[in-house]
Amino acid sequence: MKVARFGFVALAGAWLLLVTATPQAAQSKTTNDGIFSDAQVTRGEAAYKKDCSSCHGDGLEGDGFAPALSGSEFMSAWNGTSVGDLYDRIRISMPPSNPASVPAQIKVDVIAFVLKTNKFPSGKADLPVEGLKDIKFDLPK
Options 1.10.760.10, 1.10.10.10, 3.30.1050.10, 3.40.50.261; which CATH number does 31-136 get? Predict the structure, then answer.
């Protein structure tokens, strides 16, 4: 009986260690870690031109009403937040006339395009919809 109880306590302790260590490892990823692919950037650029450029401009410069999505003002506004924070802003408010009209993955593709335009490095894998809160928005190196 004591052996079984010890085994259960050891198993529970190992599980707790695993659960608490995993989020810390995930939070170490940043926008400088190649979190999106070039193919995703291409899809995001096409979606941006279709759904975003009429307000945010062809060069992501903004138009006075819609903020710029590139440059120092954009970078300082998002630095230190998470990619998930940027996604949430886009998810609930873009496009303003009907935010639900653009699927989540397309919005993430647009984020990849915005990041690449702001000189963040691409990688091999697409940026997924899940886990965006675990990626810190950090200035390009």
Answer: 1.10.760.10
